[in-house]
Design brief:
The chain is of the alpha/beta class and 248 residues long. It has 10 helices and 5 strands, in the order βααββαβαααβαααα. Strand 3, helix 3 and strand 4 form a beta-alpha-beta unit. The protein is globular. This is NADH:ubiquinone oxidoreductase-like 20kDa subunit domain-containing protein.
């Protein structure tokens, strides 16, 4: 009998939305779990921290607290393959907006008294440990998770095709382009795979899946500047952490 791959699904500081969408798969997700040995997934059952070697560790969220960093480094040592789930882990996500707006200023909107409040700069997971594969999005696309998990449990690192979100708009039912209507949209420079979920619901793309590799977006950003001010475009790039990766 073939030994099943040990899998842990771990949450750092996060909304846990990327894990919720896995449960949204229903029977399909539990069929996937039959193919692996799930040793940790807090949304299903509270279990002791996994011991021994792991085949795959799926990690969601930002390493913000000391406990987050301890868990992240420990899970990295145990896992043959470490996969980050979602925009927060991959790009810093919405929490990273604090960095752009001044973390000392921003924290005062949350806490009345700052004594003993830890307020670190928000950084992506790959600033702390080696990441083997990234499943992007806010949240991730659950069908994409199943697609690439098949390779991962075989020990293979898949490659996500480098296509823009624009390539998915017509396929998933979006017939009118925002840019043609002179409305800003980051679809041309954002990695596809989300099934154009925002566009087909009449929201422009804000780049939650991150930019395509090996692109030079400056020309496209100049086009956007004909629709919005440079400051407004920078604000858009801050939402999902693209500002660090794309310089205007």
């Amino acid at each position: 009998m073939t030994k099943k791959v040990k899998v842990a699904i771990v949450s750092l500081t996060a909304c846990e939305g990327c894990q919720i969408v896995l449960l949204d798969l229903g029977k399909k997700f539990f069929d996937f779990l039959k193919k692996v040995e799930l040793v940790d997934f807090g949304l299903i059952e509270e279990t002791p921290f996994p011991k021994g070697k792991l085949g795959i560790a799926f990690v969601e969220g930002n390493p913000i607290t000391k406990e987050d960093l301890r868990v992240l480094k420990k899970i990295r040592k145990q896992a043959k393959i470490l996969v980050v789930l979602g925009n927060c882990a991959a790009l810093g996500g919405i929490p990273e907006m604090k960095n752009y707006q001044g973390k000392e200023k921003t924290i005062r909107y949350i806490y009345k008294t700052l004594k003993n409040i830890v307020n670190p700069e928000i950084k992506e997971v790959d600033n702390f440990v080696k990441v083997d594969f990234t499943l992007p999005g806010c949240p991730i696309t659950n069908t994409e998770f199943l697609k690439y998990a098949k390779d991962l449990i075989k020990g293979k690192i898949p490659k996500i095709p480098q296509k823009p979100v624009c390539s998915e708009c017509p396929f998933w039912g979006k017939e009118t382009c925002f840019l043609r209507k002179k409305e800003p949209c980051l679809g041309p420079i954002t990695l596809a795979g989300c099934q154009a979920v925002c566009a087909k619901n009449n929201f422009s793309c804000y780049g939650c899946r991150g930019p395509l590799k090996n692109i030079k977006p400056q020309g496209f950003l100049k086009t956007l500047e004909k629709m919005r001010s440079k400051e407004e475009i920078e604000d858009d790039l801050e939402i999902f952490g693209l500002k660090d990766m794309i310089k205007i």
